[in-house]
Design goal:
Chain A: Part of the binding-protein-dependent transport system for phosphate; probably responsible for the translocation of the substrate across the membrane. Chain A: It is found in: Cell membrane. The complex is a heterodimer of chains A (301) and B (295). Chain A has twelve helices and two strands, in the order αααββααααααααα. Chain A is an all-alpha fold and 301 residues long. In chain A, a hairpin with a 6-residue loop joins strand 1 and strand 2. The two termini of chain A are 36 Å apart. Chain B has 295 residues and is mainly α. Chain B starts with a helix and ends with a helix. The chains are: A mainly alpha (301), B mainly alpha (295). At the A-B interface, helix 1, helix 2, helix 4, helix 5 and helix 6 of A face helix 1, helix 3, helix 4, helix 5 and helix 6 of B.
Chain lengths: 301, 295
């Protein structure tokens, strides 16, 4: 229908129609070109570690020692990988229950108060820049941990606490949307059977919205995994696997942030950092894949 | 009775944890403002930073942040708007459209530091823009586009179908319909979303470390010729923004009052983001009321 409609127009209309088509198509092309060149350039630099400098990929992934400037340089990135995974997973473990409670509070317990005060408050948390989180972490969390626990206060625990506050808004907003979108009949049916609110939440609401809740958690982990500066400020940046949560360690992002400026382009030291960036990029794909899989599940359920 | 007790206990715990979040935010904002506000003065906001002595300000950084924000939005808004319009109006359900959706999704979850590295490689080195505001703005464009695309789609979706069809039925072309009927109706959503995106640009640092650079040349605020190397308006000069400055002062600051500078700069950053947030809310509501005649 739309096509025949177009054909009946005079020339100026057709010209105008083309302006719109061409303009929006160029914008879309820009988007496509930018993602493809992003992936291409990061991958080509990241892979040159293996193809040009002949570093064994397995050594990189499983090596425990990172000493790029030694006489016999060692590029074991396992400490960074462990650091990244442990901080972001721990952050999700802290943030997920809090977010679920906030969402239940806003949807089931006090919708008026929640929507009016709690939601804007949580949206504000999302807007605070990550360096500010890093600054507060550095001047509040780290000294606090130094007093309470053995060690210098920096480490996975401090990183996870800072990250958990940062990802709280993401998980909460997705959780809230899922709870609000739940068909009313489901809950009403449960209440009609005489179930209490908690029974309804625990037995009906939580299981039915579980895929969506998990989506939120995965997105939160993805965000925490890629966060660079806030983590770098509180994690201590020692390139080894820590024995406790309060010992200095490093993540993929913090290693890149700190070393990228100090290495010459195309040197092996520099290429290895690009390999770390490539790992970050591959993990992004994995997270997106998991999210897509979960979304498909929630549609079926 | 046992179920009732469980219900009460659970409700109490949920309310307690929800209030923990409010307390955390109140504490966070309170801490930043209380520690920072006392350090903010006209002199702090306008003077240049000091590397080793006390009393450095954040003048150039503040200017750079605002300038970078304007540059980024000049590039992002037309591209994001166009791509968003394409996705909501021209794209038909197909494999290709699904693919673009996947791209938008991937791009939106890309770590900003990876986008920064890409900028370093392609914009700074390959295209030879160097560490400059322009490189930074382009990197942030890549970083911000998915957000802008989603905002535009959302805004256009909020337009009632009848209104769009009425325009098409009058024989007005699709592009004209989008421009003169749909965009004006969708503008409250688009505008408030754009302001939120702008707030994100203002606070972004990781992508800028490797594109806009970590230093500012000595700026001459009397020279407004955009081609002069010391002019604040020159888009091809390196520029350290406020967020990058906070990071740098915290990790390698040598000035004796580094902690106060970081606190003051953080307060400025948070206040700006709050202003963005509140104005987005206010403007969205105001325009919605104006366009829909709902009180």
């Amino acid at each position: 229908m739309a096509k025949s409609h177009d054909r009946q127009q005079g020339t100026p209309h057709i010209a105008e129609e083309w302006v719109g088509r061409i303009y929006t198509t160029i914008c879309i092309l820009f988007l496509i070109v930018s993602i493809f060149s992003l992936v291409y350039f990061v991958a080509s630099k990241g892979l040159s570690t293996f193809f040009v400098n002949h570093v064994n990929p397995l050594d990189l992934l499983t090596g425990l020692k990172w000493s790029p400037d030694a006489d016999i340089p060692l590029f074991g990135a396992l400490p960074f990988i462990v650091g990244s995974f442990s901080t972001s997973l721990l952050a999700a473990i802290i943030a997920a229950p809090l977010s679920f409670c906030a969402a239940v509070f806003m949807v089931e317990i006090a919708p008026n108060f929640g929507r009016k005060y709690l939601q804007p408050v949580i949206e504000l948390l999302a807007g605070i820049p990550s360096v500010v989180y890093g600054f507060v972490g550095l001047s509040v969390i780290v000294p606090l941990f130094r007093d309470w626990f053995p060690g210098q206060g920096v480490g996975i625990a401090a990183g996870a606490v800072v990250l958990s506050v940062m990802i709280l808004p993401i998980i909460t907003s997705i959780s809230t949307d899922a709870l609000a979108a739940l068909p009313k009949g489901l809950k009403e049916g449960s209440y009609a059977l005489g179930a209490t609110r908690w029974q309804t939440i625990y037995r009906i609401v939580l299981p039915t919205t579980l895929p969506a809740q998990l989506t939120g958690i995965v997105l939160g982990i993805a965000r925490a995994f890629g966060e660079a500066l806030a983590v770098q400020m509180v994690i201590g940046n020692a390139p080894h696997i820590p024995r406790s949560l309060f010992e200095s360690t490093s993540t993929l992002t913090s290693a890149i942030t700190l070393s990228m400026g100090n290495t010459a382009m195309n040197s092996i030291q520099n290429n290895v950092l690009w390999s770390l960036a490539m790992i970050l990029m591959l993990m992004t794909f994995v997270f997106v894949f998991i999210v897509r899989w979960l979304e498909r599940r929630s549609k079926l359920g | 009775m046992k179920a009732k007790t469980a219900d009460k206990v659970a409700t109490t715990i949920i309310i307690m944890l929800a209030s923990v979040i409010v307390l955390v935010l109140a504490g966070l904002l309170g801490y930043i403002l209380v520690r920072g506000l006392s350090h903010i003065s006209f002199d702090f906001l306008t003077s240049a930073p000091q590397s080793f002595r006390k009393g450095g300000g954040i003048g150039p950084q503040l200017f750079n942040s605002i300038f970078l924000l304007v540059l980024t939005m000049i590039i992002t808004i037309p591209i994001g708007l166009g791509a968003g319009i394409y996705m909501s109006e021209y794209a038909k359900p197909s494999k290709f459209t699904n693919f673009i959706r996947l791209i938008v999704e991937v791009l939106s979850s890309f770590p900003s530091i990876v986008v920064g590295l890409f900028g370093l490689l392609v914009l700074v080195n390959l295209f030879g823009f160097g560490f400059s505001l322009f490189s930074g703005a382009l990197a942030l464009t890549v970083f911000n586009l998915p957000l802008m695309v989603r905002i535009t789609e959302q805004g256009l979706k909020s337009v009632p179908k009848e209104q769009k069809e009425a325009s098409l039925a009058l024989g007005i072309s699709k592009w004209k319909t989008i421009r003169s009927v749909m965009i004006p109706i969708g503008i409250p959503v688009i505008l408030s979303g754009t302001i939120l995106a702008a707030g994100r640009v203002f606070g972004e640092a990781a992508a800028l470390l490797f594109t806009a650079g970590m230093s500012s040349p000595r700026l001459d605020f009397t020279d407004w010729n955009p081609f002069s190397p010391f002019s604040p308006l020159n888009p091809f000069r390196p520029a350290e923004t406020l967020a990058v400055h906070i990071w740098k002062v915290n990790s390698e600051g040598l000035a004796p009052d580094a902690a106060q500078i970081a606190a003051g700069a953080s307060a400025v950053l948070v206040i700006t983001v709050l202003l963005f947030n509140l104005s987005a809310r206010w403007l969205g509501r105001y325009m919605y009321r104006k366009f829909t005649a709902i009180k």
